[in-house]
Amino acid sequence: MHDFENEYFFLLQEYKNGLDNPNPVPVDPLNEIPFTHKALALDSKPFMLYDNSLEYKDVADFKPLNRLPEILFHGGDLIVKEELRNAILALEIPNLAMNAISFIDYKKNQHDGLWYLAFTKLFYGWDKITRFNKAAKISGTNPLYSQAKGYSLNYLLLAKTPLQNRLLLKLDEAGDHNVIAHESIAYLFKKSGVIVLPASEYENYDPYKNDQT
Fold this sequence. Notes:
Layout: H1 4-7, E1 8-13, E2 24-26, E3 47-51, H2 53-56, E4 72-74, E5 77-81, H3 82-89, E6 96-104, E7 110-119, E8 126-132, H4 134-139, E9 147-153, H5 155-159, E10 168-170, E11 179-182, E12 194-198
Parallel strand pairs: 3-6
Antiparallel strand pairs: 1-11, 1-12, 2-3, 4-5, 5-7, 6-7, 8-9, 10-11
């Protein structure tokens, strides 16, 4: 019997002491190349991203990291360095393309040799749970308006999926498009910029509640 809540780990962006993480966005916002979810040609030029943190933060409030993390995030997607890309490539994970990226940081320094993990197919691996608020019943509040919605991994779907096909997955919209890794490869992602969080702890996880480092 599998215990998937303890076999899988969410790969989440790390927040450090109120510092601002890089925020990669396309240099050309009108460029409609689907680098996030399709495989680009191997001989295509690296897709250009830049850190637009200063565009939505007051300069006086901007507190950048001293060093670029080993793994960057674009939403729930990961951007990794060459060494990690090669390790992932050796796993032959289906529905995963790795697109070449160049990233320009807030100091205008360009970082090459980066790879965007582009999942070409989502994994519909969530079971939706609705929990009615017991306190609402006691206070007389209509529980229909006081329900907490949570999610758990879909055991049936995971169990019938071969391990090779579920080593690294990007969850559907119910999971905010987060990426999860099987315990056998989760160690690969224990690098700066990432919280490797057990799936059993995800529902109650608050990245802003306390410093995560």
